[in-house]
Amino acid sequence: MDQTTDIKIVSRDVHVYYGENEAIKGVSLEIEDNTVTAFIGPSGCGKSTFLRCLNRMNDTIDVCRVTGDIELDGHDIYAREIDPVQLRARVGMVFQKPNPFPKSIYDNVAYGPRIHGLADSKADLDAIVEHSLRRAAIWDEVKDRLDAPGTGLSGGQQQRLCIARAIATAPEVLLMDEPCSALDPIATAQVEELIHELRENYAVVIVTHSMQQAARVSQKTAFFHLGLVLEYDETGKIFTNPDHEKTQQYITGRFG
Ligand SMILES: Nc1ncnc2c1ncn2[C@@H]1O[C@H](COP(=O)(O)OP(=O)(O)OP(=O)(O)O)[C@@H](O)[C@H]1O
Ligand SMILES: [Mg+2]
């Protein structure tokens, strides 16, 4: 074995309801550490909904109710004693549309470490900011203008800034919901390269509508369909020889 395959997240029989509407209808899945896991499937099948369960982002949606178990390193993330804000520092998220705060580049990255008290001094914080920006492959482009607003960067740069912001709190898991859909091919290639590298340190879960992207960046793929995971396997298997007819139809572009 060249790669550890420890299980990072376990979900058991997870159901998600928006009011009366059941968006996730019993999903059980094990997400591996140091692995990129892709969620694919047609629009509206629940990929974002399930992803948001993994760091309790659904808590912020009033009508949303989650049942079942989700464990991070064997601990129930929905347990009473779990603080969702602390949880989200461990399970970071990057969204479809780059959403830097209306603050400087520096303050965007320093925000999480500040609220979580991760730096003891200004020098410490500087080091975290630099390390995170380097890790997100954007340091060279911004190091001379750390005081400039994050919103003034290009779309691809903003997305890498958001990745830097997400990793600044030293998370263990990184959730990405269509992180490249607003990016041009060059910025997409940069973010994909980055995802590839991030796998060394994190469990990465990425929602994507691009079959090519799923095939390029992930090792495991889950095919979502109507609120269920119909198939979950090695990415190579899903894209060459899926078990399920619906998976085959989807990856060959016959629906979705
Ligand atoms: N905030 C919300 N309030 C009510 N219903 C919602 C909400 N978010 C999602 N839904 C519903 O839950 C179902 C799953 O939506 P979700 O956004 O998870 O799908 P998705 O697979 O991410 O789709 P897409 O590929 O278009 O992003 C849909 O029926 C959607 O209308
Ligand atoms: Mg979605």
Automatic annotation (TrEMBL):
<dbReference type="InterPro" id="IPR027417">
    <property type="entry name" value="P-loop_NTPase"/>
</dbReference>
<keyword id="KW-0592">Phosphate transport</keyword>
<protein>
    <submittedName>
        <fullName>Phosphate ABC transporter ATP-binding protein PstB</fullName>
    </submittedName>
</protein>
<feature type="domain" description="ABC transporter">
    <location>
        <begin position="9"/>
        <end position="251"/>
    </location>
</feature>
<dbReference type="InterPro" id="IPR003593">
    <property type="entry name" value="AAA+_ATPase"/>
</dbReference>
<keyword id="KW-0067">ATP-binding</keyword>
<keyword id="KW-0813">Transport</keyword>
<dbReference type="InterPro" id="IPR005670">
    <property type="entry name" value="PstB-like"/>
</dbReference>
<dbReference type="InterPro" id="IPR017871">
    <property type="entry name" value="ABC_transporter-like_CS"/>
</dbReference>
<dbReference type="Pfam" id="PF00005">
    <property type="entry name" value="ABC_tran"/>
</dbReference>
<keyword id="KW-0547">Nucleotide-binding</keyword>
<dbReference type="InterPro" id="IPR003439">
    <property type="entry name" value="ABC_transporter-like_ATP-bd"/>
</dbReference>
<dbReference type="GO" id="GO:0005524">
    <property type="term" value="F:ATP binding"/>
</dbReference>
